[in-house]
Structures are given as C-alpha cells and as structure tokens.
Design a protein that fits this description.
This protein has 132 residues and is mainly α. The protein has a domain of 86 residues: Orthogonal Bundle (Helix Hairpins). It contains four helices and two strands, in the order ββαααα. Strands 1-2 form a two-stranded antiparallel sheet. β1 and β2 form a beta hairpin. The protein is elongated, with a radius of gyration of 21 Å.
Length: 132
Amino acid sequence: MVEHGRLSDEELLRFKEMLLAERQKVLEARSGLLEQIIGQAVFDSIGDNSHYATHPGDLASTNYDREFNMNLSERQTKYLEQIDDALRRISDKTYGVCQVTGKIIPTERLESVLTTKYSLEGKEQLKRENLG
C-alpha cells in the first residue's frame, strides 16, 4: 500500500476516482440549489400579483429559506475547492501524507474524510499549537 513514504499509484488512482465521483455529486446538488435560488430571485423580482397582503411570517420564512440556500451553496463551493485541492495533491503524489507530521494518513481516515490534509495526530498537534 505504501511506497517510500507515500500512497502507491494504485491507491492514488482509487482516491482520485472517489474524489471525482464526489465532485460530480456536489456539482449536481449545487446546480439544483442554484436553480432554486435563481427561481426565488425571479419570483421575488416579479412579485406576488395576488390581491392579498403578504403575511410577515411568510416573508420571514422565505428570507430564511433564501439565506439557508445561499449558505449551503457557499459551503458546497468551499467543499469543491477542497476536492480540487485534494486532486492537485494526487497529481503531486502528496495526497495521503499529513502536512503536519509528514506521515502517511491511514486509509480509513482518507476514506471517511476524502479531502483531509492531516492525520489525527497532525490535527491534534495543530489544535495544541493554536491554543498555546
């Protein structure tokens, strides 16, 4: 599994495929979310043509939904950036190597957190350094 302090080419290929699949899934979800956001913006710009006053509760709910969707879209954008960074590390053959300790990140951790840059040991070390 490990060649000279890094993941083997086979492991890198396997994680690349997993990351590309995850990237596609996020892009599809984000596309649907952006359609919702745009649709709501168009509806808001046209306005409600009914003769009934809009209830403040409805406005609050609409605003909450819009903000929630915008925040979700922002998180998806950040996650896509993390995926792209992980794909760059695969190209550089540094994927799976902790950026703090220089040690190989266990496969189980990589499988559960595809975009991680740190082993659990490295993550704990970063926490200690940031607190101290």
